[in-house]
Amino acid sequence: MRILLDIGHPAHVHFFKNTIWNLENKGHEVLITARDKDVSIDLLKDYNINHVVVGKISNTKLGLIAEWIKRDYKIYKIAKKFKPDILMGILNPCAAHASKILGKSAIIFNDSEVVSSTAAITYPFVNVIWTPSNFAKSLGTKQIRFDGYKEFAYLHPNYFCPNPSIFKKLGINPKDKYVVMRFVAWKAGHDMNQKGFDLEMKMKYIREIEKYARVFISSESDLSPELEPYQISLPPSKMHDLISYAQLLIGDSQTMTTEAAVLGTPAIRCNSFVGENDMSNFKELEHEYGLIFNFSDPEKALEKAVELLQTPGLKEEWKYKRERLLQDKIDVTGFMTWFVENYPSSFSMMKRNPDFQSRFKTGSWASVTESHKQKDGSQIETDQEDVPTLPELVNNPRTIPKTV
Predict the structure, then answer these.
(1) Which of 87, 220, 346, 387 would bridge 95 by S-S if both were Cys, CB 3.0 to 4.6 A apart?
(2) Within 10 A of 226 (CB to CB), how many other CB atoms are there?
(3) What is the pTM of this model?
(4) Res. 155: pLDDT tops 70
């Protein structure tokens, strides 16, 4: 099978990397196209994932539109030459359009109900739309819901184990408490008219938080001179180690907030997206699991940050909250690998029996089955053995579970 996968954001690299390795190790050919945004290209290089750069993010609205059009055409030309069976991406109009023109299948993922304009130019042209099970919108017959967030594709314990060497890289003692502050650039198409922290509020947060812990800043855009002393200098691939051992994450970032929750680190998210129409995953993580806190008012968010930093046994409490989350969610990478490799029969299976995905929950590897064709074309189900242990998976994230 030949798969073309387009990367539009650093989080997309993380989301797809293990599935890419799974599919390649199973003999499938995967071609990666990528947009030069933030640290996307650096991550692909860090992970030794071959790729073709097809565009660079612009700083203006008109520039973004022009970039999308150029990238759309480039991906179509590349796909026409590569001849993929399936095109994939995260709410990716370019992959969708190319698939439609070439008469190929397209599978896309979306976890954001608020990006309606991008969805409008993507959904009509794809075959499958993956969403988290708690996605607030019904998208019709193309939609496949699964019990997980995109962050589980790379931070599930089957694929990620934090490395304590991060303390040496930070130059601090493992007993030292630190807080990560994450600021986004607000330049994406779906970020128009949205906002996070201003400079004055960033400085106020630092003055308060420094009373309780060290402060490290991660930022998509250049920092002002006042903030530069706090800027973290780490390879992008080490960011999840940083978050995992942090006492708290505070930011206006969407993705990094969910990453902190999945890793068991308390997180405070504050931006203008927060409200009644907020994304379902943030509502669930706050109200169902108590792992994050969402605010539109930065003053209230700061009050909560100080409260948490004064709470004894905070990380231990979050460890138990995370365990409950893990029990409820699936190994998203395992599910995606199975789905792509067995498409389109996997689509039919999920439509007939959505609970099939429960076989990808923690501890359920041995019960996962694959569909195989007999000589007459009919399907048989066979249980597979020789499932790798969790330590094998943790120590070698490119180890491929043979059950998917």
Answers:
(1) 87
(2) 11
(3) 0.82
(4) yes
